[in-house]
Structure formats: structure tokens, C-alpha cells
Amino acid sequence: MTWWRALRRTARSGLRVERTRLEPLVALRTAGGVAIVIALSLWLWSPPVAASSAFGAFAAGVATLQRSWRPRPVLAMAAAAGLAVSTFLGYLAASHTVLFVLLVAVWAFGAGMAWALGPTTGTVSALTVVVMLVVVTLPTSVLSALHHAALIAVGGLVQALLIVVFPVRRWGRQRDALADAFAAEADFARRLRHDPLAPFDPAPLMTARSAAVVSPWQARRRPEELHGNRALAERIRPVLASLADPRVGAAAEGPERDRAREMLAVAADVLDAVARAIRSGTRVRVPGEVQQLLRTPETDAELTGAAARSATRLASLLAAAIERADGSGPADTTGSAHLLRPSPRELAPLAWRAVRRQAHWDSPVLRHAVRLSAVASAGYLLGTALPLGHGYWAPMTSVMVMRPDFTQTYERGVARFTGTLVGVSVATAVTRFAHPGTYTFAVLAVVCVGLMYLLLSTGYVVAQACVGGYVVFLLGMGGTQLEQTVRDRVLLTLLGGVLAMAAYAVFPAWETTRLRDRLAEWLEATAAYTAAVMDAYGDPGSRRPGAVRGALLDVRAAGTTWDQAVFRADVEPVRHRGLSRTAVRDADAALSGLGRIGLLMEAHLPPRDAPPSPGAARFARALRETTAAAAADVRDRRAPSWQPLREVLEGWQAAPGEERIVRRGAELVGETLDDLAEALRPRSLGRRHPAGGGAPRGRGPGAGGGRD
């Protein structure tokens, strides 16, 4: 893709406004925190102090609205602590330009590396850089630094206190995540009725797992319906696929297929009912005829063999899901143990290791940190050198729009300038025609910030329009000359956006050049999962608890990383001799199919007292060995060879009484890996952009379709 096309595409994406479910009570509560801080500051001190102290409550409120499963009060207090420290240090260094620029550079680098811990940590860390840039306009002394840092911290504490005193829909996000997982499986069951090989997007299951990670304190207070149901949802998914797949389940046509479709329809209705009950906290409402169908699958004459076992297992799991959602079922002891969040003592070494893993020159996080450090310090020097007021707006814009990847950086750059232009223009017009006083300015600022909190999920451009109005009204309350502010803010915002975009163009971290590495990682993870399933057949009595489950989670993570890489590479203005469009599509289909085969076999894992399958054990060992060489071939731009694995498969003589499904699964694995080798043959390599047609099967970033 050329630079012109890439810029047009990211500009359109950045200006997109989405319709999402709004949370007015949450927005009202968070805006109330800003209002309290402004009111107290106006009462106790002065409008300029109120204008500056409101930033702490504003930034802490933004932190609580980030996509994170940690308790909202904890996010508010953590943000307040970071903001207070950056404010204090910025105050002390503000009078010495060289010292301040060095401080900004180091602090911005640390904020950039914080993306190694996740997007929420990265976003909140960027806010601390913004605060440090803003405080240089204030008088400097140790006492005033402590005073202002305390005011910033109080803003975060107020937000945390409001969340505790006025809770809105306790455990609501966790309920939604688990309900979305069940609803996704209901949709999957309906699609399987018409397409037995329909793909499944495991993203809702991954989100539900993230939402289930709790602290010991939370584990003791979590609602009963949120404990255990996630494990049931995970176990229902492979059973649905195994019942519908004609290779290992119901026959492609005839009475058996009709009965399978009926069971899938029943499953969809039950899963939807469970999702509604979990989301609303009410009892599950399932029609009586559905309950009857769940009690009689083992008596069906139409279903035989593996299909009959799948139907019986499905009925049992659905009945358990109904009981667990109603809070009346027994605790699920097969995989629903609490996923405990690390304590602060345990979290520190984990965070350090995560940062160290990104400390190499090709890391997108390290490159982002270098760009952020350079742009923040250079933007500050350039902003102060220009004959404009409020020079900190240029580096502040750069810090807020910069992200580790090309797409988000350019989207946010366009959205921030457009939103700022609209918000500042509207707010300036209101100010000129209405001539509001100090308290009216304060009310208008709170209204704007409330709208920002309410509409934050609809699009960055909308949020920035609200922020633009908020800043104009807040500065108007502090007595700043608005005409100068409007001109300066628009020009410096444009400058900051240009600096951010130019920094990425000069020092990029392209996903295009890493596509083969991402594909090799996904191949290794998927083969390891399939081998773990084969090991369970090879020696059922000695299989390690959680081995298959852990391997499946690795597949999902690697598949999501691959999807994100393809999505980002699709809009990058890079020409690289990597994977062609056809190779990306075919390799994606082959590895998705390999993961599905492992899942089908997992649905029929033998009991621990079942006889071992020596052929499965040999196949698993050969699969691991050949995958190591195949992954190296993929990275080195060679088509992988699966000849050693094929030889093991050809020499596999099924033992008497051995499960037919494991032998059939091994055959399907061999066929799928041959498809992968065909997709990556040299004739499939080209000079064109690797994924110009979009992410595989129309998925967006993080979708992870077919990853299990």
C-alpha cells in the first residue's frame, strides 16, 4: 500500500464514529468527581488553582474508564499516585530548561515501555507525561510542588471514593464478558446447523477468562453465577464442534444429521437463556420442551458412536450451565479454580520480566518508547521556541496520539486535530456570544467532561471534541485570554500531530516485516496443542492436569497476535518480500483447521483408565520434532516439509479397541499440514504487500477467529 492510500485509510478510520452501548450513570458519577474538585478549589482557593487541580480528577476518571478488569477504585488511586509524582517532579525541574527536558525524555521513555504491561498501563502512563508538561506554566517551589501534587492526588481519591460510595452495576463488566461468551457460543451453535465447519471466534472466551482473574478479596465476594460457568463455556465449545463435524460426529446427511441440527438448536436457545440470566442477574428461563430434549439424548436411536457421546455430553453440560447460572448447581471442580491476580509483591518481578522481554531493538514497545521520548522533549523545545502561548500543547498532543503501531498513531493524530478544531470552535463561539462568568465556565467545563466520559467509546474524534471544549471553558474559568488560546491550541495541536506521525515514519516498527515470525509462532503453538491432545490419547493415565488447557490458551494468544499483525500490515505503507495475499489467506485457513482438529479430538478425550495408544504417542513426538524444523523453514522463507510425520502416520497400525477418532484425527492433521506447506511454497511468495485484501476472513484486530 502506498503512503497516500495508507494515510487516506487511517484518516477515514480515525474519523469513524460507532454506535455503542452508553453508560450514563458511570459518566455522571465520573463527571461528578471533576465537579467536586472544581467546586472545592473555587471555594478554598482561586479559579487558576481550580483549573489546574481539576486535571487530576479528569485524568483519574479517564483511567477508570479504560478497558481493565482491575477494581475501578484501584485504577483511580494508581493514576492519582502516578500523576502526583510526575507533577511534583515537573514542578521541581520546571525552572531549569535543560533539566526539565531531560526529565521529560526519561519519563516519556518509561511511559512508552509501560506498554509492555498492557494498553491500560500505557495509557495511564502517558497521562502522567501530559501532567508533567502542563505544570511548567505554574510557579515553582518545593512547597507549591507538594501543594499541587496533593491537589492532583485528591482528584484521584475523590474518583475512587465515588466509585465505592455510589457503585453502578456491581460486577457488570464481568457479567457482560461471561454473558458474551455464552452468546457467542449460541451463535456458533446456530451457524453449525447450516455449516458444520463454521469458524468460531474465541475472543469472547479469552475476554471472559481475563475477566475471571480476581484478587483473593474479590474471589470471596464474587457473585455465585460468575464462578464456574466460564469453565463450562470452555467445555461446551468443543462438544458443539464435534457433534456438528461430519468427520468425527453426525453423518453429513440423513436422520442423524437432522437430530444433530435439533440438538444444536436446543443448545443455542439454552446458551442464549444462560447469557441473559448472567447479564441481568436473574434466573434462567428455558421452555419446558427444551428441558425435555436435554434429558433424553442418550435414548436417541438416530445418533450413534461419537455423535451420540457428543450429544449426551452436550446435554449434561447445558444442564450444568443452567444450574450454575441459577446458583443452584454444585461447584465445578474440573477447571474453575480461582484465577488469582498476582499480589503487588508478585506483580513487580512479573512486570520487570515483561519489560525486559521488550528490551531489544526490533521490539515495537522499545521503538515506541524511543519515539515518545524524542518527540516529547523535542516538541517541548519547539513549542516554547515558537511565538505562541501554551507551547506544551504540541508535545502533549504527540504523547496522547502516539501508540506502538502505525494504524492507531495515524488514526488518533487525524482524530485529535479534527476533534480539537470542532470542540474549540464551538466552545469559543459559546464564550463570545454568552460571555459566561467564572461559575458558568465551571459548569460548562463539567458538562463537556461528562459528555466526554459518556461518549468515550464511540470514537476518539468525538472524545477529543469534548476535551477541546472542556479545556477552553476550564481556561476561561482561570482567566486565560481565549482568543489567543484558541489559535495556539489549534496550531500546536496540528504541530504535535505532525511530529507524532513524522516520528513513526522516521523510526517505524512495521508488522509487515514480522509476519513470518508471527506465523511461525502460531504454527508452533498450534502443533504443541495438537501434540498435547495426542499425548492424552497416547497415555491417558499419566497425562498432566491442565496440559491440554494450557496449550490451548497458547494457541489463542498466538492466533490473536497473528490476526493483529495481519490487520496492521494491511494498512502499512510497506513493500516487503514476505507473504503474498494468497499465502496469508491459505496459511491462515490451514492453521485454523489444525487447531480445530485438535479441538475435535479434545472433545472425546479418553478416561484415565482407558488403554493407551502407542501410535498416538509416536505421532505426538514426531509432530513436535517436525514442527521445530518447519517453524525454522517458515522464518527462513522456505516451504516446510512434513515427510517424517507422514512416515510415522503411514506406519501407524491401530491397536484393537483403539479410538477411531484419534487415528482419523491424525490423518486430518497430516492433510492440513500438507495444505500449509502448499500455501507456503516458493511460487506463493511475492513482492506485493502481504495482506492487501484485509485480515483473513474479514476479521479485525484481536478477533482470533478459528484459533481453537
From TrEMBL:
Instruction: Tell me, in one coarse class, where this protein mainly resides.
Output: membrane
Q: Where is the Integral membrane bound transporter domain?
A: 380-502
Cell compartment(s), UniProt? Cell membrane
The superkingdom of the source organism is Bacteria
Membrane-related topology note? Multi-pass membrane protein
Region annotation (Disordered) maps to: 679-708
InterPro entries named in the record: Memb_transporter_dom, YccS_N
Q: Which UniProt keywords apply?
A: Cell membrane, Membrane, Transmembrane, Transmembrane helix
The UniProt transmembrane annotation reads 21-43, 98-117, 124-143, 149-168, 372-393, 413-431, 438-455, 461-478, 490-510
Composition bias (Gly residues) maps to: 691-708
Query: Where would I find the Integral membrane protein YccS N-terminal domain in this sequence?
Result: 80-188
Q: Which Pfam families match?
A: FUSC-like (PF12805), FUSC_2 (PF13515)
Family of the protein in this entry: Belongs to the YccS/YhfK family.
Q: This protein is called what?
A: FUSC family protein
